Amino acid sequence: MQKQVVYFCFQNIEKKPPCLSEVLQLRDRGYHVVLVTPDYGQDYLNRIREMGVDCIPYTLYKSRNLLLQKARNYFSYKKLWDKVRNEIWNDDTILWVGTEESLMKHRHFLKNFHPLVANALEYYEDEWWTSRIPEFRKMVDIWTACEPHRAILMERQWGLGELPHVLRNKPYDHPRQRCMNPSTPEMEGLIQQIRGKKTLLYQGAIVADRDLSTLADILKRADSDFYLTLSGPVEGDALQKVRDRYDKVIYLGNIPYAYFLEVTSYAHIAVAFYNDTSLNNRYCAPNKIYEYSGFGIPMLCNDIPGLTSTVGESGAGICVDFSDPDAVIRALHEMDSEYDRFSRNAMRFYDDTDNGPAMDAILKNAFLLTQSSVRNRSSHSK
Fold this sequence. Notes:
Blueprint: E1 4-8, H1 17-28, E2 32-38, H2 42-50, E3 54-58, H3 66-88, E4 93-97, H4 100-105, H5 107-110, E5 116-120, H6 127-131, H7 133-139, E6 142-145, H8 148-157, E7 165-166, H9 185-192, E8 199-203, H10 212-221, E9 227-231, H11 238-245, E10 249-251, H12 260-264, E11 269-272, H13 279-282, H14 288-293, E12 299-302, H15 305-314, E13 317-320, H16 325-337, H17 339-352, H18 356-381
Parallel strand pairs: 1-2, 1-4, 2-3, 4-5, 5-6, 6-7, 8-9, 8-11, 9-10, 11-12, 12-13
Helix pairs in contact: 10-11
């Protein structure tokens, strides 16, 4: 009997790179992978199936009447997990829950599935989450974290009893080719805006509590020749504030996941920073640093542990205090003047990050638990 993994992701897995990477790794290790996912449309389901992954889609209801919405979704979830239990599950199956939201939304139905592996892609500190840690601790057999400091915090503050396995947020597939050929006329139009320019690229949410305005002020003060190039969702007037401060700003829109790496491949230097306002940010684990480094793009980062221990220590970029304009400009000049060295270090950082051993350890432990479950049932039946 082929070993199988039922992988559950409440969100669109194409927009959750760590989850998609796990599914592809499981597939390539020879497991039968069944993705349990809301029905995000036939095109979405077809793309997943073309990857060699089976799908069990279910309906996610939305209504202005919240009570009606909750009731309809409850029965949709129940029907879904009854189907998994009765038609899919066997003695060589494990359940892998891709995100905390997936665990939260379906916790009442998942607690009887074992072995259960669960990702903690974030480190939540809010009362709702922390109050339910005892419940989740009983449900989850194996935890994963995406950053080693977070793994330590989870073990100690959640009382897990053992250190979660660390799976870095590195993409499983990466094109690695600089200046990729645009795949559509729309992408050609976007890339034409930055082709031949000295780009300082930021990809991510453009929101008020990020330091993009500060960075724009620094670039203006230095009369920089960098074009501050942005792509991602915009909240409020955050984009306009950046434009008001610096005249070399290019906004490319919120580019879909399947295409944004084409733009990334044209960047000269990339930006990664997180305000030090929470443990989750302090010990950040951005997939962006792997998307950038896979192309050999040096990175300008702020000096928080999640970035100094990765980008900084590997020499793939420079981590500085963004409140020090001179330090930012010096870092940009250093990376620009010694570009080949930083680019090689970025490539090496990408290549040296290997999630394979951690993935193998998780699967080994999980399938050992399936054997224990079978033995326990056999002993009780005698």
